[in-house]
Amino acid sequence: MSGGAPVLRASGVDFRFGGDLALAGVDLEIGAGERLAILGPNGGGKTTLVRLMLGLLAPSRGEIRWTAARRPRLGYVPQFPAFDRAFPLRVAEMVGLGLLRAAGRDRRAERARVDAMLERLDLAALRGAYLSELSGGETKRALIARALVGDPGFLVLDEPAASLDEVSRRSLWALVGALPAETVVLLVTHDLAPGTFAATRAVLVDGRLEALPVEGLHQHPILCGHGHG
Amino acid sequence: MAESAGGLGDLLALDFFRDALVAALLASVLCGVVGTLVVLKRLVSIAGGVAHAAFGGLGVAYWAGADPRLGALAVAALSAVGLGFLDRERVRRLDAAIGVLWAVGMAVGLVFLHWTPGYAPDLLAYLFGNILLLTPSDLALAAAAVAAVLVLLAWRGRELVAVAFDEEAARLQGLPTRAYGILLLMLAAVSVVVLLQLVGIVLAVALLTLPPLIALRLARSIAGVVVAATAVCLALTVGGLLLSFALDLPSGPVMVLSGAVALAAAQLVPRRSTRA
How many contacts, defined by CB atoms under 8 Å, are there between A and B? Predict the structure, then answer.
C-alpha cells in the first residue's frame, strides 16, 4: 500500500467463472488518496478485480472488506453501460440518480449539482435529451457525470476514455485531477498518455496481480500496443 | 356475454356495468404504474410465472372453502419473494424456475378445482376473467391495491425507477436493491390478483404488458409513459368491454386482442427527437 489510511483490503482472493480460475491469490490493500492504475491484457481479469472490490461480485475464496470506519461513497464508470438505452430517462434525470443517497434531498440543490457536473462534462446542451438519443461518447460522459456527481470517496473508472474525443478526454482528466486528495481512484486502462492520470501505484492483472513501477509507466508495452490487447 | 348490444345509456343504467367501469379504471392505474415498472425492469416473464402460480393458490383455497382471491394472493406473494431471492446472474436457472412455477401452479390449480366437491367453479371465469361478475369486495380489493401502489410511488418512486433503470448503480449507492426487486415483484403479484377478475390469470400479464409497450411509443418521459399506459389500459378495458357486447364475445380476450392491434398500430407512430 502506498496511500494514506487503509480503506479496502483484499486477502487471498480467488475468483472463478464457472470452473475456470479467472483471478488467483489476490492480496491488495488500498489506502486513502491512492490513484491506482490497473493494466493488463484483455481477459486478464481487470474488470473482474474492480467489480470484486466494489462488491458487485463475490470472491470464490478469500475476503474483501472495507477497513475504513465507514464505507466511502462509491462511484463507478463501467466499461459498458449496464442499462437499457431505450429507458425513458433524460440525461439530467439519469445523472441525478447518482444523488440517491445525497444528504438532505433538496431538489433545488440537487439540480444545481447536476447542472454543474453537466457543464463540466460539456453535456449542458444535452440535459433534456433522452438516453436513446446519445452517441456512445455522450453516453460515456453521462456515466462519468453520474459517478462523480455524488462526490465519491472511492471511484472506479473502467476504460473511461474509450469512445471519448480529445476535448472530452481533457475534461475527464481535469475532473479526476481536481478530485479531493483523499479520494481513491482506480483506473482500468489501456491508454495512459503522459499528462492524463497521475498514478501513485500500478498493477498488472493477468490472472494474478503483479506490482508495476510507476516510473516510466507510460512506456509499458501493454499500453503501447505491444501487449496482448 | 351480453344478451343484446343496447346503447351506452342502457348499459350505464346497469349496476354491474357501472361496477365494471370502476374496476376498469382501478385496474388501469395498476397497469399504468406497475405495468410500466414491470416492462422497464424486464420482469414480464417473472410476472407471468407469478400469475400462473397464483392459479395454484386459487384452486387450493377454493377446495378448502376459503376466499380464492386470498389463496391466489398468498401464493403470488410467496412466489414473488422466492423469485426475488434467486440469483439473477444465473439466468438459465431463473428462466427454468419461472417455467416450473408456471406449469406447476396451473397444474395444482386445476387438480384442486377438479377435487372441489359440489358444483364445479366457473374455470373459464378464472382463466379468462369476467368483468361483469364483480362483487363489492372485488372493487374494495382493487381500490386498496391502487391506494397502496400510489402511496408507495409517492414515497419511493425515484428509488424504484433507479432500481428498474440500473440495479447495479443503485446497489453501489447503498440501496437495498434485492428488497426493491422483491417489492416490484410483490406489486406485480398484487396487480395480477386484482386483474384476475378483469381478464383472468392467463391474460392478466397481457394487461400489465400491452399498455406500457404502447405507451412507450407514445410518450418519452417516465411520467408520460405511466399516464399514457393508464389511459391506454382504460381505453382497452372499456373499449374491449363495449366491443365484446357488440360482438357477443368474452370480454377478456377482446380486451387483449384490441391491445395487440393497438400495439401494432403504435409501431407506426414516428419517434420525435429532442435534439436539433
Answer: 74
What ipTM is given for this predicted complex?
Answer: 0.89
Give a yes or no: residue B87 inside a domain: yes
- pLDDT tens for residues A155-201? 999 999 888 898 888 888 999 999 999 999 999 988 777 778 889 99
**A88/B225 CB distance under 8 A:** yes
Q: Of the candidates B73, B42, B51, B53, which has an alpha carbon nearest to the alpha carbon of residue B181?
A: B42
Give DSSP secondary structure letters for B10-76: HHHTSHHHHHHHHHHHHHHHHIIIIIHHHHHTT-HHHHHHHHHHHHHHHHHHHHHTS-HHHHHHHHH
Average pLDDT estimate for A108-135 = 93
Distance from CA of B260 to the nearest CA of A (A): 21
Number of domains within chain B: 1
Residue A14 · residue A61 · CB < 8 Å: yes
Q: Is the pLDDT of residue B1 over 80?
A: no
Domain that holds residue B251: 8-266
- Could you say which of A84, A100, A150 has the minimum Cβ distance to residue B170? A100
Domain at A1-72+153-229: CATH architecture: 3-Layer(aba) Sandwich (3.40)
Question: Are A88 and B224 within 8 A, CB to CB?
Answer: yes
Q: What is the CATH number of the domain that holds B133?
A: 1.10.3470.10
pLDDT higher than threshold 50 for residue A227 = no
> Grid cell 387438480 — which residue?
B111
Q: Residue B40 and residue A128: Cβ atoms within 8 Å? A: no
Mind telling me how many Å the CA of A194 is from chain B's nearest CA?
31
Break chain A into its structural domains and give their ranges. 1-72+153-229, 84-151
d(CA A79, CA A143): 10
| B211-241 pLDDT per residue, tens | 999 999 999 999 999 999 999 999 999 999 8
Is B276 part of a structural domain of the chain? no
Cα separation, B186 vs B180, in Å, equals 10
Instruction: Kindly indicate the confidence band of residue A220, based on its pLDDT and cuts at 50, 70 and 90.
Output: confident
Amino acid, res. A73? R
Q: Which residues of A169-179 are buried (b: 16+ CB within 10 A; e: fewer)?
A: bebbbeebeeb
How many angstroms separate the CA atoms of B40 and B163, rounded? 10
Q: Judge whether B274 lies within some domain.
A: no
3-state secondary structure of B166: coil
pLDDT tens column, B115-128: 988 766 677 777 77
In a domain, B271, yes or no: no
